[in-house]
Design goal:
The structure holds 2 protein chains of 2 kinds.
Chain A: H1 5-29, H2 33-50, H3 52-56, E1 65-70, E2 75-79, H4 83-106, H5 113-132, H6 136-154, H7 161-192, H8 215-224, H9 228-242, H10 251-254, H11 260-269, H12 271-286, H13 295-316, H14 321-341, H15 345-376, H16 392-406, H17 412-431, H18 437-457, H19 478-502, H20 508-521, H21 539-554, H22 558-570, H23 576-597, H24 603-625, H25 639-656, H26 661-681, H27 685-706, H28 718-744, H29 749-759, E3 768-769, H30 778-786, H31 788-810
Antiparallel strand pairs in A: 1-2
Helix pairs in contact in A: 1-2, 1-5, 2-4, 2-5, 4-5, 4-11, 4-15, 4-19, 4-20, 5-6, 6-7, 7-9, 9-12, 9-13, 11-15, 12-14, 13-14, 13-18, 14-15, 14-17, 14-18, 15-16, 15-17, 15-19, 15-20, 16-18, 16-19, 17-18, 17-19, 17-21, 18-21, 24-28, 25-26, 26-27, 30-31
Chain B: H1 20-43, H2 51-69, H3 71-78, H4 92-116, E1 126-132, E2 136-141, H5 143-167
Antiparallel strand pairs in B: 1-2
Helix pairs in contact in B: 1-2, 2-3, 2-5, 4-5
The chains are: A mainly alpha, B mainly alpha.
């Protein structure tokens, strides 16, 4: 059963349409544009929901909706909906609805709301594209679109240095990560053609010939070429950049410069989930069955666990509420990636389930942070405390969400973290040795997770610090409170379902949905999924207990740990941030060198650089493609041609010694006219005519210009003469080689024969000729008939050149002042 | 724009007046060049020639006039444009720019006309008209329209460049 094509296309198209309409809508609705955007998101959510049944029963070898895009390259806009895609789509639209409503309160009286809503809608569309795309090229395009829209949203406050720095940083990290992804995509698609029974394809999933329908073959082909680990690594780098994994997590804390709804939407529930989504989507492709610790696990699970632990520690060192949440997000994404990295069933269940749980509790916590910042006027952790008195509802949501984040039973995060513990324990128990580190790192990270979760909770309890101005704290508007409560409530319900399942009452719909999400990433196909509180002692229940217990015990010395982490962060050469900044500074310095050596303002330099680099590129191209120079086997010319060529050579030699510009130009024209005569002798009257006329015009124009030129350029230094001579020789050599190579090729004569046959007037013809060109001059017939489209292009270029001259020279100085 | 002796001075230095010979030759040759250019354009379909060559030749004629008589003479006397060129597209530049725009439009419109008739873009046809006095049979090629477009673009674009660069 496959999803409805029209519905999927509508889901993908509506957000972009909505984004385009925002300026019009804003004119009518003003601040209430937020509800229009929320409406668009709600429609998309409803449309997705109608396809849920198809998604729950999707199989990777059928069901893709295919729209041809670039047929010549095998690129399609293929859409596919299964459990995982549905989950990410529902997160993007569902959290989208809530975030838009929240924005109505949060963004009131903020600048640039039109831009904000349009970009946020476009982002939502891009994210839906990532979730639905079944073609790797389409996936890449939407992937980068999320980076671009994220850049615009992080830099929403365009005038602040911090906003610009953060936007640029996130753009560079995620887009460069995207380029790794692109290389991986191209390599993977190239190799698929070598798999037995597979054609070269970019289609990842959803058709009979797609990669995920034939994972064995694709893996085999990759391993034959020795590309398996490189391709996996390329995809993982792309995913890690997007999902803020160590050491590429640096952009996420800075991205908190964005308005808080953006942070809740992009940097907790959706965009950072794109990397996780990719890992989950590719897992069945790269994970061979029946291998306990495959390469995939070594790469992905290690990356996830290390990120989980490192960023959890960094979160404890945070001083700002949103910074804490940002590091925590990176940590939880690490957990998900680690789950997907492990080859066991518990691993994939941990990854899939934690996507849901993390989106619910983290989006709720971000919205809480927004309320706190909005009402208390500060985000500094040290200045906040005891807020429950003023914000009781928000405090209640925080209890549910923060305890879920900490993994405390029976709240929602507990179940998925328990699954991760189980998966790491299985590997460690099975393999022993270094793999014992897997559960150890997981517990270590979780201790810090518990620590910072309690710290976040304590914003609402305990004694308020002195500086907090009590009377000013008001209850937030309903548009900010309702989405927060809803998200927190959903997180609580997920936890409650676990409790109910323990006593035998199952929420079937939710469990079968989760089962289909798991099935999307599972190797062995899908089966049921259920979760409940542990009913008997087990090693992983012990791990949970250890983490929570250690966290609670250590919390009283939180401030000491916090200072310790900050000291650790201050150790030079350990922060990837420093390397990023140094890299940017180096680029700046490199940029400063360009005007000094290349952009000197002297035409001579420009000409030399342009000509030399063009020649080197052309010659390099010949070398790279291994072009052979034709063998020289002598040629015979008659006396007239020899004489003409001799005069031309003498003329060329005389140019160099011409005493003045006028003499030089006139001597140069000897060369040109001799070439024209050569054309006449070689039976090319059209070429000769053209050469004659152009030569005349050039001569006339040069004489016109010469009036204005200085008579002398000053003495040429030896160095300059040598470099100029070198450039001249290089250009000459390039042209010579090009002519030799070009004339050596013997193109298929059929084209020429076709022209000759159809160019002239046929012997018998009616009054109107349509099949033949009917011209005696074949050269001109080719220009205006057979190849008229080329000629149209050429005259367009000529017209553009004239327009450029008009705008560059004639309009100079009349434009706006910079 | 006159130096008071009834002769346009343009921007030229009076001490570098062109000789009588040059002026006389130009006066004689320019019409010949122009006629040749038109001939090249018309006969291009069957004999050496064509829109591009004809266009370049026409520009040569204008450039020669500009060198010998000055740009202003070219504008005021030959083309009858007297509006002083202050803006970018005023005066003679506007004429030149209009010429290449019209040429481009003509060339493209010919192609579109073929599409309207149900043939691919830029398809050309030839019509033979019988019974014309003197010629007996005349071959009318739609390619000539396209060639005329090429001619106008070449003339307009090169003259625009010449005018703008020349004014510098």
């Amino acid at each position: 059963m496959s999803p409805d094509a029209a519905v999927l296309l509508a889901v993908l198209g509506l957000p972009f349409l909505g984004a385009a309409l925002v300026p019009v809508v804003h004119r009518v609705l003003g601040e209430r544009t937020a509800y229009f955007a929320a409406g668009v998101a709600a429609v998309c959510l409803a449309l997705l929901a109608t396809q849920a049944d198809a998604a729950l029963h999707a199989t990777p070898d059928a069901g893709a909706v295919v729209v041809p895009w670039i047929p010549a390259l095998g690129v399609e806009l293929a859409l596919y909906l299964d459990g995982l895609a549905l989950l990410v789509g529902v997160l993007a639209t569902g959290v989208g609805v809530l975030v838009f409503i929240y924005s109505a309160g949060y963004m009131r009286d903020e600048p640039g709301t039109q831009r904000y809503y349009a970009t946020l809608l476009a982002f939502m569309g891009s994210m839906l594209g990532v979730a639905l795309a079944a073609d790797l090229i389409a996936l890449f395009v939407f992937w980068e679109l999320t980076s671009v829209t994220s850049f615009l949203l992080i830099g929403h406050y365009r005038t602040t240095d911090a906003g610009r720095y953060a936007a640029r940083k996130s753009m560079l990290v995620t887009v460069v990560g995207g380029l790794f992804l692109l290389v991986g995509v191209v390599l993977l698609a190239h190799v698929t053609g070598e798999a037995p029974g597979l054609a070269r394809t970019f289609t990842l999933v959803g058709t009979d010939g797609s990669m995920l329908a034939n994972p064995e073959g694709v893996r085999g082909a990759l391993e034959t070429r020795g590309l398996f680990v490189p391709v996996v690594a390329l995809f993982v780098v792309g995913a890690a950049a997007k999902s803020a994994q160590v050491p590429l997590q640096i952009w996420l804390p800075d991205a908190m410069e964005a308005p808080t709804p953006v942070s809740a939407f992009l940097h907790s529930a959706t965009m950072v989930k794109a990397g996780v989504y990719l890992v989950g989507r590719l897992r069945p492709l790269f994970l061979p069955p029946d291998v306990a610790v495959p390469d995939w696990t070594l790469l992905v699970a290690t990356l996830g666990l290390v990120s989980m632990a490192v960023t959890a520690v960094l979160a404890v060192g945070a001083t700002d509420v949103k910074e804490l949440l940002a590091y925590s997000t990176a940590s939880h994404l690490g957990l998900i990636i680690a789950g997907y990295g492990l080859a066991t069933e518990a691993g994939v269940e941990a990854g899939a389930f934690h996507i849901v749980n993390h989106a619910l509790f983290k989006a709720a916590l971000f919205l809480v942070a927004g309320i706190v910042a909005h009402e208390a006027g500060t985000r500094a952790i040290h200045d906040l405390g005891g807020l429950a008195e003023h914000l009781p509802v928000t405090a209640a949501v925080t209890v549910v969400a923060a305890l879920g984040m900490a993994g405390v039973p029976p709240f929602n995060g507990f179940y998925s973290k328990e699954l991760l513990f189980e998966a790491t324990w299985e590997v460690a128990a099975h393999e022993g040795g270094l793999y014992l580190l897997f559960p150890a790192i997981a517990v270590f990270g979780s201790v810090f997770t518990v620590l910072y979760s309690i710290r976040f909770l304590m914003l609402f309890f305990g004694e308020p610090p002195d500086g907090l101005a009590d009377p000013e704290i008001q209850a937030p508007p309903w548009s900010m409170l309702a989405p927060t409560v809803l998200l927190g409530g959903l997180a609580g319900l997920v936890g409650l379902a676990g409790v109910l399942a323990t006593v035998g009452v199952h929420v079937e719909a939710f469990e079968s949905f989760l089962a289909s999400v798991v099935a999307s990433s599972a190797v062995a196909g899908g089966h049921g999924f259920e979760y409940h509180l542990p009913t008997s002692p087990s090693p992983y229940a012990g791990m949970s207990l250890l983490a929570i217990g250690l966290g609670a015990v250590l919390y009283p010395s939180y401030d000491r740990i916090h200072r310790g982490v900050r000291r650790l962060r201050a150790v030079p050469h350990t922060s990837p941030d420093a390397y990023y900044d140094a890299g940017i500074e180096g680029l700046d310095r490199l940029g400063a060198l360009v005007p000094r050596y290349v952009q000197t303002g002297v035409v001579r330099t420009y000409a030399a650089v342009l000509l030399a680099s063009t020649s080197l590129l052309v010659l390099g191209g010949y070398t790279a493609t291994g072009v052979d120079l034709p063998a020289f086997d002598g040629f015979v010319v008659g006396l007239p041609i020899a004489l003409v060529l001799l005069v031309a050579v003498v003329g060329a030699a005389a140019v160099g010694t011409a005493p003045s510009h006028v003499a030089g130009v006139l001597t140069l024209s000897i060369l040109g006219f001799m070439v024209a005569v050569f054309y006449v002798l070689a039976s090319a009257p059209d070429l000769a005519l053209t050469q004659l006329v152009v030569e005349t015009l050039v001569l006339v124009i040069l004489l016109l210009v010469l009036d204005e030129l200085p008579a002398f350029y000053g003495e040429a230094t030896r160095l300059r003469s040598i470099t100029d001579g070198f450039v001249a020789a290089l250009v000459g050599a390039t042209v010579l080689v090009t002519v030799l190579v070009a004339t050596a090729g013997r193109p298929d004569d059929r084209i020429a024969e076709f022209f000759v046959e159809n160019g002239g007037v046929p012997a018998e013809h009616g009054p109107v000729l349509l099949d033949a060109a009917g011209g005696g001059n074949l050269v001109n017939v080719i220009l205006v008939d057979f190849r008229a489209f080329d000629t149209l292009g050429e005259i367009t270029v000529l017209a553009i050149a004239a327009l450029s001259v008009l705008t560059l020279i004639a309009m100079r100085g009349t434009g706006e002042a910079p | 724009m006159s130096d008071g002796r009834g002769r346009p001075a343009g921007r030229r230095d009076p001490r570098r007046e062109t000789t009588v010979i040059a002026r006389l030759v130009t006066r004689t040759v320019v019409p010949l060049i122009l006629v040749t250019a038109v001939a090249l354009l018309v006969r291009g379909h069957n004999l050496p020639g064509g829109g591009f060559i004809a266009g370049v030749l026409t520009v040569t004629a204008f450039a020669l006039t500009a060198i010998i008589y000055g740009l202003d003479e070219l504008e005021e006397t030959l083309l009858g444009v007297t509006v002083p060129g202050r803006g970018v597209l005023s005066g003679v530049t506007e004429t030149f720019a209009g010429t290449f725009a019209a040429g481009l439009a003509l060339a493209a419109a010919g192609g579109v006309a073929a599409m309207l008739a149900g043939y691919p873009f830029l398809s050309q046809a030839v019509v033979f008209v019988e019974g014309v006095p003197l010629y007996h049979e005349i071959e009318l090629a739609s390619a000539l329209v396209f060639d005329l477009g090429v001619y106008l673009v070449v003339v307009g674009a090169l003259l625009t460049i010449l005018k703008v660069v020349g004014r510098e």
